[in-house]
Design goal:
By secondary structure, this protein is α+β, with helices and mostly antiparallel strands. The protein folds into 2 domains: about 10-125, Phosphorylase Kinase, domain 1 (2-Layer Sandwich), CATH 3.30.200; about 130-275, Transferase(Phosphotransferase) domain 1 (Transferase(Phosphotransferase), domain 1, Orthogonal Bundle). Helices cover about 45% and strands about 20% of the residues. The chain contains 9 helices and 11 strands. The strands form 3 sheets. Strands 1-5-6-4-3-2 form a 6-stranded antiparallel sheet. A 3-stranded antiparallel sheet has the order 7-9-10. Helix 6 (about 145-165) packs parallel to helix 8 (about 225-235) and helix 7 packs across helix 9. The N and C termini lie far apart (about 50 Å).
Length: about 280
């Protein structure tokens, strides 16, 4: 009988000397690293930002959690190998032509093919900001004509960005504006790829979910208009007028947006009870 697999670590060669400056060499080094600034903490998952010289990295760690494991079993889902999946998803998204994260390292400790703990490291997207912050804080500070012109371009680009992703059979599942970063030259970058699905059998379901998440996020940003949404849709579908099928999809997206809004209220309450957010 083949014994359970042992720990394995993959590091991009040119990043190895930089990570070693912070003492990051082995699987245990990454999983036990106590430095950095905490960015996110959820049940079984955490993310910290690590600054090393002039470069910065995000270390995301996944640990086995009984609650999440049982939730998966109840939903008839096998436990996901988080770091390996994210590593592969980054490659798929980059191949689609959508700009995304730079992968630096990943490691996992599997047991009979199931992940018990894992980590991934990506490099910071320098001089980039989450799109919801740009739309909600930066654009309102610009003179009105300049802000309108820039916002139009961003929504057209966002529509084409989402269309390209879906056109390659990739569905994000957490497609909120906070997971789309705007960089120099107003180039968009997609982050948080751990849950991305590649050509799922219920593609329309996940397409609606992605678009509804974007729509819900946009509804929480002051100044996003109906016209902005139409610019997005025209770019997403690649047409100047929406036909019957496109309108059917839009109606489904609006219905899903309402369900997300109701679910979000309950989710925030649960995360506060667990101490994940203030």
């Amino acid at each position: 009988m083949t014994p359970p697999a042992t720990e394995r670590v993959t590091i991009i060669p040119d990043a190895r000397p930089v990570l070693e400056q912070a003492g990051l060499r082995s699987f245990r080094d990454f999983m036990d690293y106590a430095g950095g600034r905490r960015v996110c903490h959820k049940r079984g998952r955490s993310t910290v930002r690590i600054a090393i010289g002039e470069r910065a990295f995000y270390l995301k760690r996944n640990r086995f959690h009984w609650v999440e494991f049982l939730k998966g079993l109840v939903r008839l889902r096998f436990p996901v190998r988080g770091a390996l999946r994210e590593w592969r998803n980054i490659a798929r998204v980059r191949e689609s032509g959508v700009s995304t994260l730079v992968p630096i390292a990943f490691g996992e400790r599997p047991f009979w093919g199931f992940e018990t703990s894992s980590f991934s490291v990506t490099e910071e997207l320098y001089r980039c900001q989450p799109l919801d912050q740009v739309l909600g804080k930066e654009l309102p500070d610009l003179p009105s004509p300049a802000a309108r012109f820039r916002k139009r371009g961003i929504f057209r680009q966002l529509g084409a960005f989402a269309g390209r992703l879906h056109g390659h059979g990739l569905y994000h599942q957490d497609f909120y504006l906070s997971h789309v970063f705007l960089g120099p030259g107003d180039v968009l970058h997609l982050i948080d790829l751990q849950r991305v699905l590649h050509r799922p059998w219920r593609a329309r379901h996940f397409c609606i979910k992605d678009l509804a998440q974007l729509n819900y996020a946009a509804s929480r940003v002051p100044g996003v208009s109906r016209t902005d949404r139409m610019r997005f849709l025209h770019a997403y579908f690649g047409c100047s007028t929406l036909g019957f099928e496109e309108k059917q999809l839009v109606r489904a997206v609006l219905a899903k947006t309402s369900r997300i809004a109701r679910h979000d209220v309950k989710l925030l309450a649960r995360r506060r009870r667990r101490g994940e957010i203030a």
